[in-house]
Design a protein that fits this description.
Blueprint lengths: L1 E5 L2 E15 L4 E7 L15 E8 L2 E8 L9 E6 L6 H8 L5 E4 L17 E7 L3 H14 L4 E8 L8 H10 L4 E7 L15 H10 L18 E6 L1 H13 L7 E5 L18 E9 L2 E9 L4 H7 L17 E6 L2 E3 L7 H5 L2 E3 L3 E3 L3 E5 L4
Parallel strand pairs: 8-9, 8-11, 9-10, 11-12, 13-19
Antiparallel strand pairs: 1-2, 2-3, 2-7, 3-6, 4-5, 4-7, 13-14, 15-17, 15-19, 16-18
């Protein structure tokens, strides 16, 4: 086992053997790990979660999160990785590691998850772009296996056919579960015989999808398929998530039923801030992180706490700055804040005093935070 600080937290990494390595496209590949019996409990997971992988080269360490593509019932850990550049961690892994090698992997984490409801009739829609298919693939396999009454619709965007990862596995699922799973592929840089499937999946495309695909509902002649949607899953770049999440919300899906996962840093709010706050100036902020105490003063509360600490170049844990990843989760030990939209904390955790610093507006002259907790 190896311990390392990652996103402001002490993270444990365990050596796992690569059981299988497979190229998917020219710039994506998959890894399957062998889980020792004594670590089986530690590496149990929920659909939609990820693991953190630590790699080393020439004395340098690279730490990155990768979504699990397997479903829990498959009893294995498989990942999908995309090589964005020759110097990326994924490129290093692809070039330096082979089947049989050991890699350091953390236990599964993340809250891009759903509560299983095998006895209910549900309609779930997924939107994915590129390597954003990875956690949604895990979700869809799990739902199809666990929920015999649930129907699913997947809208999957890529640049072109050549870059479409997991095509064979997705098509196999569609053939096997043809009465409950429909998959539609979209290409932004390749001509298609039907122009409907050309272009990015965004707000405009969603309007067309609702009106031309999710319209007539064979199970209820008085409503549309979209009217019956219970949950929406979105994974891709920040702009795509922002566009689709707001479009889904404006088309009647409650925010609590819209779930999203980023695969890169995104510094904007997903939903627009609709509240106004009384101006407070000269705010004293104290916080604890990794056993060290820090203190500063914020000019006012026009901006969120984490963002202001970063501007002042204080060390704080973060990744997305959008209330999605939970890296800046902390306890509010003193003062009051307004916690804006977040995709991470539960109502119970909020009641316990937990907040996300990236989505918190100070409402008192003094704020005290603690980022150290198990």
């Amino acid at each position: 086992m190896k311990q390392q600080i990652y996103k402001g937290k002490l993270t444990e990494f365990h050596p796992l053997k690569i059981a299988k390595k497979q190229d998917l496209t020219k710039n994506t590949f998959s890894l399957e790990f062998e889980i020792p019996t004594d670590l089986a409990g530690l590496f149990s997971f929920d659909a939609g979660q990820y693991v953190t992988v630590l790699t080393e080269k020439d004395g340098a360490e690279y730490i990155n999160d990768y979504s699990i593509t397997a479903a829990p019932f498959e009893n294995k850990i498989t990942l999908g990785l995309k090589i964005n550049s020759d110097k990326s961690a994924a490129s290093l892994i692809h070039n330096q590691y082979s089947e049989g090698d050991l890699m350091y992997v953390s236990k599964p984490a993340g809250r891009f998850t759903l509560v299983s409801k095998p006895s209910e009739f549900r309609t779930i829609v997924g939107f994915a772009a590129g390597i954003g298919i990875t956690p949604i693939l895990s979700h869809f396999k799990n739902i199809l296996h666990q929920e015999p009454r649930t129907r699913l619709f997947l809208f999957y965007g890529n640049k072109n056919f050549e870059n479409l990862a997991y095509r064979e596995e997705l098509d196999q699922l569609a053939r096997f579960y043809g009465d409950r799973l429909q998959i539609y592929y979209f290409f932004s840089q390749e001509n298609t015989s039907n122009s409907f499937f050309s272009g990015r999946i965004d707000e405009k495309k969603l309007n067309l999808i609702i009106n031309q695909i999710l319209h007539l509902d064979d199970t209820d002649e008085e409503s549309t398929i979209w009217d019956a949607v219970d949950e929406v899953l979105i994974c891709g770049k920040g702009e795509m998530i922002k566009s689709l999440a707001n479009a889904c919300y404006h088309h009647g899906i409650p925010k609590n039923n819209i779930h999203f996962e980023l695969f890169e840093e995104f510094n904007e709010d997903i939903y627009p801030v609709e509240k106004e706050f009384p101006l407070i100036e000269n705010i004293e902020v104290e916080y604890t992180m990794l056993g060290k105490n820090f203190q500063t003063e914020l000019h006012d509360n026009r901006e969120k706490i984490l963002q202001q600490l970063l501007i002042q170049k204080f060390p704080v844990p973060y990744s997305c700055k959008s209330g999605i990843c939970g890296s800046c989760e902390c306890f509010l030990e003193e003062g009051e804040v307004e916690l804006l939209e977040n995709e991470y904390l539960t109502e119970k955790e909020e009641a316990q005093g937990k907040i996300l610093a990236c989505m918190s507006i100070a409402k008192t002259k003094k704020i005290k935070l603690n980022f150290d907790f198990n």
